[in-house]
Amino acid sequence: MQPSRFNIISRLNDSLDFFVVNLLSGQADLLSEEEVAFLERDFEKAPTEFFEKGYLADPGKEMQQYRLRYIDFIEKRDQEEVQVFFVPTYQCNFACSYCYQSEYPAPPENLSPEMVDAFFSFMETRLRGRKKYITLFGGEPFLSGKSYKASLAYFFEKCAENSLEVAVVTNGYHLDQYFDLLSKVKVREIQVTLDGPEHLHDHRRPWKGGLPSFKKIVENIDQCLSLGYIVNLRAVIDRENMHELPALARFAIEKGWTGLPNFKTQLGRNYELHYCQDARNRLYSRVELYQELYRLIKDHPEILEFHKPAFSVAKFLSENGSLPDPLFDSCPACKSEWALDYSGRVYSCTATVGKPGEELGTFFPEMKLNETAISAWQERDTLHIDKCAECSFQLACGGGCGSVAKNQYGHLLAPDCRPVKELLEMGLDLYFGK
Ligand code: SF4
Ligand code: SF4
To answer: What is the pTM of this model?
Structure first.
């Protein structure tokens, strides 16, 4: 018997307690220092419970269980619903200070009906037999302008005709001009971004030309919520606005949004994806962002009413009383995610869409896909990345983001490490600490 390869053992932040989390056996416990010694040195003296819970295991049997769980994972993943992003334009009416798409080419064409038809035929042929839904993405998918809106109207008609649900990622400014189109389809959710209270949001996410956007977006969020649409409010966080997160949380609480069943939130880390940003020194690394967030939550617990961060699997454990299934792959690209744009090109996901050189083929004017490049994305998981296959955090991390790994190492079978241990130290303290 040996300590499991998948034990994650550390100490809760700001506490004397230790923890062990094991994603393969699905067990987690708070431990004393003495109990940790059973897992690190004094195996013979360990209580039988530690064997039963898989913290101490026979390596051969554990590998067998690992392989079975992997097969399970792949089978489930192949049945997952597919999210297909569609970019009707790369243009945007905002001039956000950190936009990673600001350097992507954006010719000012509208969608042709032939191209829209070809998109739906891609959905039918390539993704035949899979459950799927569409997410409109940009640029900004909800621009003003009659001819642009008319070209999108046909797209919505086709979604309705094919009974496909639609989600939208929008800056929220012209949402009110699109309620008529939205009413024609089943809407999955509407994601809108607010980057802080009014003054800060308007500084970071102005209209092109510098006009403010906050008030109009807030009105549109109110309207969406009262129409029953699920609003997913996203805040993109960096060093410039982190300190105002408590103010944004209080704003949402005072508006009554946080008490509504159709309101949810997400925090996005502002990070350098493909292009160098002007103000690189305002970016957080992943661990820095969560460390700052952890400190801020300790001082302003009302943030949790607005948004409860995952801190790896800590939130899941606190809400479900059990661990999630082992995560052999955290990158859905070309598996349960695709991204297509109005130029007829096919990409792996939102991180690569529109980036020259990342095309995986075309769906219009003809369907022509680079199957070798697609297979490379589909093959990526923790078993196929050498460093991940050896890593004790792999079943919580899943190997990270393929696009980030490729940018860093020049190929896909490379890791994009998540600070799993540090996240658990903070998250388990926040959600389970005394
Ligand atoms: S490459 Fe990154 S952004 Fe794209 S699907 Fe994978 S994890 Fe998500
Ligand atoms: S990406 Fe890094 S942390 Fe994640 S499983 Fe691979 S080696 Fe481990």
So the answer is: 0.93
